[in-house]
Amino acid sequence: MAPQIEQITENRRFSVPLHPGQKIAAKALALTSVLQTTLEINQLMALFFQELEHTIPFDGLYYDFPASAIDIKLGVQSGHSCSYTLEVASEALGEIRLFRHQRFAEEELETIENMLVGLLFPLRNTLLYQRALQSAIIDPLTGAKNRAALDGSLQREVDLAHRHTVPLSLILFDIDHFKRVNDRHGHLLGDQALRAIADCAQRTIRDSDLLFRYGGEEFLVLLTNTGLSGAQMLAERIRRSIEQAQPVIEAGEAITISLGVASLLQNEGATDLFQRADQALYQAKHQGRNRVIAAT
Protein backbone atom coordinates (compact mmCIF):
# COMPACT_ATOMS: atom_id res chain seq x y z
CA MET A 1 0.00 0.00 0.00
CA ALA A 2 1.50 3.35 -1.02
CA PRO A 3 2.11 6.03 1.63
CA GLN A 4 -0.81 8.41 2.08
CA ILE A 5 -0.04 11.93 0.82
CA GLU A 6 -2.40 14.76 1.61
CA GLN A 7 -2.18 18.02 -0.37
CA ILE A 8 -2.42 21.05 1.94
CA THR A 9 -2.15 24.32 0.01
CA GLU A 10 1.45 24.17 -1.30
CA ASN A 11 2.65 21.72 1.34
CA ARG A 12 2.41 17.94 1.19
CA ARG A 13 2.00 15.99 4.41
CA PHE A 14 4.12 12.88 4.18
CA SER A 15 3.28 10.14 6.68
CA VAL A 16 3.77 6.39 7.01
CA PRO A 17 2.54 4.02 9.75
CA LEU A 18 5.00 3.05 12.49
CA HIS A 19 5.46 -0.41 11.04
CA PRO A 20 4.97 0.08 7.30
CA GLY A 21 3.90 -3.03 5.46
CA GLN A 22 4.28 -1.57 2.00
CA LYS A 23 7.07 -2.58 -0.33
CA ILE A 24 9.65 0.23 -0.48
CA ALA A 25 11.49 0.85 -3.72
CA ALA A 26 15.04 -0.46 -4.03
CA LYS A 27 16.51 3.04 -4.06
CA ALA A 28 14.72 3.95 -0.86
CA LEU A 29 16.03 0.80 0.80
CA ALA A 30 19.55 1.61 -0.34
CA LEU A 31 19.12 5.16 0.90
CA THR A 32 18.01 3.92 4.33
CA SER A 33 21.17 1.81 4.59
CA VAL A 34 23.31 4.86 3.82
CA LEU A 35 21.47 7.13 6.26
CA GLN A 36 21.68 4.62 9.10
CA THR A 37 25.44 5.18 9.25
CA THR A 38 25.02 8.39 11.28
CA LEU A 39 22.99 9.77 14.19
CA GLU A 40 24.20 13.35 13.67
CA ILE A 41 21.42 15.45 12.15
CA ASN A 42 23.57 17.72 9.96
CA GLN A 43 25.44 14.76 8.53
CA LEU A 44 22.18 12.87 7.97
CA MET A 45 20.74 15.73 5.92
CA ALA A 46 24.00 16.14 3.97
CA LEU A 47 23.91 12.42 3.08
CA PHE A 48 20.26 12.67 2.02
CA PHE A 49 21.10 15.69 -0.13
CA GLN A 50 23.96 13.82 -1.84
CA GLU A 51 21.96 10.65 -2.45
CA LEU A 52 18.90 12.50 -3.77
CA GLU A 53 21.11 14.51 -6.13
CA HIS A 54 21.96 11.27 -7.92
CA THR A 55 18.25 10.70 -8.64
CA ILE A 56 16.59 14.11 -9.09
CA PRO A 57 18.24 17.39 -10.15
CA PHE A 58 17.67 20.11 -7.57
CA ASP A 59 19.52 23.13 -6.18
CA GLY A 60 18.94 23.25 -2.46
CA LEU A 61 17.39 21.70 0.63
CA TYR A 62 15.92 23.26 3.76
CA TYR A 63 15.02 21.20 6.83
CA ASP A 64 13.23 22.78 9.79
CA PHE A 65 12.27 21.20 13.10
CA PRO A 66 11.41 24.03 15.55
CA ALA A 67 10.65 21.67 18.45
CA SER A 68 14.37 20.86 18.69
CA ALA A 69 15.64 24.20 17.32
CA ILE A 70 17.00 22.46 14.20
CA ASP A 71 17.35 24.61 11.07
CA ILE A 72 19.50 23.21 8.24
CA LYS A 73 20.11 24.83 4.84
CA LEU A 74 22.06 23.08 2.10
CA GLY A 75 22.72 24.29 -1.44
CA VAL A 76 20.83 27.24 -2.97
CA GLN A 77 17.22 28.30 -2.51
CA SER A 78 15.84 28.77 -6.04
CA GLY A 79 12.52 30.05 -7.35
CA HIS A 80 10.51 26.80 -7.29
CA SER A 81 10.13 24.37 -4.41
CA CYS A 82 8.24 21.36 -3.12
CA SER A 83 7.59 21.05 0.59
CA TYR A 84 6.73 18.07 2.80
CA THR A 85 5.62 17.87 6.42
CA LEU A 86 7.19 14.66 7.74
CA GLU A 87 5.45 12.30 10.16
CA VAL A 88 5.82 8.75 11.45
CA ALA A 89 2.71 7.35 13.16
CA SER A 90 1.45 10.92 13.77
CA GLU A 91 4.81 11.87 15.33
CA ALA A 92 6.01 15.14 13.79
CA LEU A 93 9.53 15.04 12.33
CA GLY A 94 9.70 18.55 10.92
CA GLU A 95 9.42 19.92 7.39
CA ILE A 96 11.69 19.49 4.39
CA ARG A 97 11.71 21.70 1.30
CA LEU A 98 13.57 21.15 -1.98
CA PHE A 99 14.45 24.01 -4.35
CA ARG A 100 15.34 24.38 -8.02
CA HIS A 101 14.94 26.84 -10.90
CA GLN A 102 12.09 25.00 -12.67
CA ARG A 103 9.00 23.28 -11.32
CA PHE A 104 9.15 19.64 -10.31
CA ALA A 105 7.22 17.31 -12.60
CA GLU A 106 4.69 14.89 -11.10
CA GLU A 107 6.89 11.87 -11.79
CA GLU A 108 9.78 13.64 -10.07
CA LEU A 109 7.60 14.31 -7.04
CA GLU A 110 6.72 10.62 -6.93
CA THR A 111 10.43 9.76 -6.96
CA ILE A 112 11.13 12.29 -4.18
CA GLU A 113 8.30 10.83 -2.12
CA ASN A 114 9.69 7.35 -2.65
CA MET A 115 13.08 8.55 -1.41
CA LEU A 116 11.49 10.22 1.60
CA VAL A 117 10.31 6.78 2.69
CA GLY A 118 13.99 5.92 3.05
CA LEU A 119 14.63 9.09 5.08
CA LEU A 120 11.82 8.92 7.63
CA PHE A 121 12.99 6.17 9.96
CA PRO A 122 16.69 7.18 10.05
CA LEU A 123 15.49 10.74 10.69
CA ARG A 124 13.23 9.59 13.52
CA ASN A 125 16.07 7.63 15.12
CA THR A 126 18.42 10.60 14.80
CA LEU A 127 15.92 12.99 16.41
CA LEU A 128 15.35 10.55 19.29
CA TYR A 129 19.12 10.33 19.77
CA GLN A 130 19.47 14.12 19.69
CA ARG A 131 16.73 14.47 22.31
CA ALA A 132 18.45 11.92 24.55
CA LEU A 133 21.73 13.80 24.28
CA GLN A 134 19.98 17.09 25.04
CA SER A 135 18.24 15.63 28.09
CA ALA A 136 21.57 14.41 29.43
CA ILE A 137 23.05 17.93 29.54
CA ILE A 138 20.00 20.01 30.59
CA ASP A 139 18.93 20.68 34.16
CA PRO A 140 15.23 19.72 34.17
CA LEU A 141 14.25 22.28 36.83
CA THR A 142 15.75 25.47 35.37
CA GLY A 143 16.38 24.61 31.71
CA ALA A 144 20.02 25.70 32.06
CA LYS A 145 22.82 23.37 31.04
CA ASN A 146 23.95 21.08 33.86
CA ARG A 147 27.23 20.27 35.61
CA ALA A 148 28.06 17.48 33.17
CA ALA A 149 27.74 19.89 30.24
CA LEU A 150 29.89 22.47 32.05
CA ASP A 151 32.82 20.12 32.57
CA GLY A 152 33.27 19.53 28.84
CA SER A 153 32.38 23.05 27.71
CA LEU A 154 34.72 24.88 30.10
CA GLN A 155 37.77 22.78 29.23
CA ARG A 156 37.03 23.06 25.50
CA GLU A 157 36.66 26.85 25.63
CA VAL A 158 39.84 27.25 27.71
CA ASP A 159 41.78 25.21 25.16
CA LEU A 160 40.34 27.25 22.27
CA ALA A 161 41.05 30.55 24.02
CA HIS A 162 44.70 29.63 24.52
CA ARG A 163 45.07 28.23 21.00
CA HIS A 164 43.60 31.30 19.26
CA THR A 165 44.74 33.88 21.84
CA VAL A 166 41.23 35.23 22.49
CA PRO A 167 39.74 36.30 25.84
CA LEU A 168 37.51 34.03 27.88
CA SER A 169 35.63 34.92 31.06
CA LEU A 170 33.16 33.35 33.42
CA ILE A 171 30.60 34.63 35.91
CA LEU A 172 29.79 32.54 38.97
CA PHE A 173 26.75 33.54 41.00
CA ASP A 174 24.40 32.17 43.61
CA ILE A 175 21.21 33.23 45.35
CA ASP A 176 21.65 35.16 48.57
CA HIS A 177 20.32 33.41 51.71
CA PHE A 178 18.76 30.63 49.65
CA LYS A 179 18.79 28.13 52.54
CA ARG A 180 16.61 30.58 54.45
CA VAL A 181 14.17 30.64 51.54
CA ASN A 182 13.85 26.84 51.60
CA ASP A 183 13.63 26.69 55.41
CA ARG A 184 10.93 29.36 55.65
CA HIS A 185 8.85 28.63 52.58
CA GLY A 186 9.61 25.06 51.52
CA HIS A 187 11.35 23.54 48.54
CA LEU A 188 8.42 24.09 46.16
CA LEU A 189 8.75 27.86 46.41
CA GLY A 190 12.52 27.46 46.43
CA ASP A 191 12.28 25.66 43.07
CA GLN A 192 10.12 28.47 41.73
CA ALA A 193 12.78 30.96 42.78
CA LEU A 194 15.50 28.93 41.02
CA ARG A 195 13.46 28.87 37.81
CA ALA A 196 12.80 32.62 38.01
CA ILE A 197 16.49 33.40 38.52
CA ALA A 198 17.55 31.15 35.63
CA ASP A 199 14.92 32.65 33.30
CA CYS A 200 15.96 36.19 34.18
CA ALA A 201 19.67 35.43 33.66
CA GLN A 202 18.99 33.66 30.36
CA ARG A 203 17.07 36.66 29.04
CA THR A 204 19.89 39.00 30.06
CA ILE A 205 22.92 37.20 28.59
CA ARG A 206 23.82 37.16 24.91
CA ASP A 207 23.03 34.35 22.48
CA SER A 208 26.72 33.39 22.42
CA ASP A 209 26.90 33.05 26.23
CA LEU A 210 26.20 29.74 27.99
CA LEU A 211 24.28 29.43 31.26
CA PHE A 212 24.89 26.43 33.53
CA ARG A 213 23.39 25.35 36.83
CA TYR A 214 26.53 24.38 38.69
CA GLY A 215 24.73 22.92 41.69
CA GLY A 216 22.08 23.85 44.24
CA GLU A 217 21.52 27.61 43.97
CA GLU A 218 24.80 28.26 42.13
CA PHE A 219 24.98 29.17 38.42
CA LEU A 220 27.79 29.87 35.97
CA VAL A 221 27.86 31.90 32.76
CA LEU A 222 30.62 31.14 30.24
CA LEU A 223 31.53 34.09 28.00
CA THR A 224 33.65 33.39 24.94
CA ASN A 225 35.71 36.17 23.35
CA THR A 226 34.96 38.43 26.34
CA GLY A 227 37.48 40.16 28.59
CA LEU A 228 37.18 41.06 32.26
CA SER A 229 35.58 44.50 31.80
CA GLY A 230 32.90 43.12 29.46
CA ALA A 231 32.20 40.25 31.86
CA GLN A 232 31.87 42.71 34.77
CA MET A 233 29.33 44.79 32.85
CA LEU A 234 27.27 41.74 31.97
CA ALA A 235 27.41 40.48 35.55
CA GLU A 236 26.13 43.84 36.77
CA ARG A 237 23.27 43.69 34.22
CA ILE A 238 22.33 40.21 35.48
CA ARG A 239 22.44 41.38 39.11
CA ARG A 240 20.38 44.48 38.37
CA SER A 241 17.81 42.65 36.22
CA ILE A 242 17.16 40.11 38.97
CA GLU A 243 16.99 42.80 41.63
CA GLN A 244 14.55 44.84 39.54
CA ALA A 245 12.47 41.81 38.50
CA GLN A 246 12.16 40.94 42.21
CA PRO A 247 11.18 37.28 42.19
CA VAL A 248 9.29 37.71 45.50
CA ILE A 249 8.72 34.75 47.81
CA GLU A 250 6.29 36.69 49.97
CA ALA A 251 5.47 40.35 50.58
CA GLY A 252 8.57 42.28 51.52
CA GLU A 253 11.05 39.46 50.81
CA ALA A 254 12.76 39.72 47.43
CA ILE A 255 15.63 37.62 46.05
CA THR A 256 19.09 38.92 45.18
CA ILE A 257 22.29 37.32 43.92
CA SER A 258 26.02 37.73 44.48
CA LEU A 259 28.44 37.35 41.57
CA GLY A 260 32.15 36.62 41.08
CA VAL A 261 33.87 37.32 37.75
CA ALA A 262 37.19 36.06 36.39
CA SER A 263 38.96 36.25 33.04
CA LEU A 264 41.39 33.61 31.76
CA LEU A 265 45.07 34.39 32.37
CA GLN A 266 47.96 33.33 30.15
CA ASN A 267 48.80 29.63 30.66
CA GLU A 268 45.95 29.30 33.20
CA GLY A 269 43.87 26.12 33.28
CA ALA A 270 40.13 25.63 33.69
CA THR A 271 40.40 24.71 37.38
CA ASP A 272 42.37 27.84 38.30
CA LEU A 273 39.99 30.07 36.34
CA PHE A 274 37.01 28.61 38.17
CA GLN A 275 38.68 28.89 41.57
CA ARG A 276 39.44 32.59 41.06
CA ALA A 277 35.79 33.25 40.12
CA ASP A 278 34.70 31.25 43.17
CA GLN A 279 36.97 33.31 45.41
CA ALA A 280 35.54 36.53 43.93
CA LEU A 281 32.02 35.23 44.65
CA TYR A 282 33.05 34.51 48.26
CA GLN A 283 34.29 38.08 48.59
CA ALA A 284 31.02 39.43 47.17
CA LYS A 285 29.05 37.54 49.80
CA HIS A 286 31.49 38.51 52.56
CA GLN A 287 31.22 42.20 51.63
CA GLY A 288 27.43 42.30 51.98
CA ARG A 289 25.96 40.29 49.08
CA ASN A 290 23.93 41.57 46.10
CA ARG A 291 27.10 42.81 44.37
CA VAL A 292 29.69 41.95 41.70
CA ILE A 293 33.35 41.33 42.56
CA ALA A 294 35.97 40.73 39.85
CA ALA A 295 39.05 38.59 40.45
CA THR A 296 42.34 40.42 39.89
Descriptive terms for the model:
single chain, 296 residues, alpha+beta, Beta-Lactamase, Alpha-Beta Plaits, six-stranded mixed β-sheet, five-stranded mixed β-sheet, 8 helices, 45% helix, elongated, disordered N terminus, diguanylate cyclase, Rev_trsase/Diguanyl_cyclase, diguanylate cyclase activity
Give the total of beta strands.
11
> What is the count of structural domains?
2
The CATH architecture of the largest domain can be given as 2-Layer Sandwich
Radius of gyration: 25 Å
List the helices and strands in order.
Answer: EEHHEEEEHHEHHEEHEHE
CATH superfamily of the largest domain: Reverse transcriptase/Diguanylate cyclase domain
Q: Helicity, in percent?
A: 40-55%
Distance between the termini: 71 Å
The biggest beta sheet, please? Answer: 6 strands, mixed
User: What is the CATH C-level name of the largest domain?
Assistant: Alpha Beta
Structural class designation: alpha+beta
Number of helices: 8
Main-sheet strand order equals 1-2-5-6-3-4
Global morphology: elongated
* Percent strand: 15-25%
CATH topology call of the largest domain: Alpha-Beta Plaits
The low-confidence runs, each spanning 5 or more residues with pLDDT under 50, are 1-10, 18-24
* Average residue pLDDT: 87
InterPro entries: Diguanylate_Cyclase, GGDEF_dom, Nucleotide_cyclase, Rev_trsase/Diguanyl_cyclase
Catalytic activity: 2 GTP = 3',3'-c-di-GMP + 2 diphosphate
GO biological process, one term: cell adhesion involved in single-species biofilm formation
EC number: 2.7.7.65
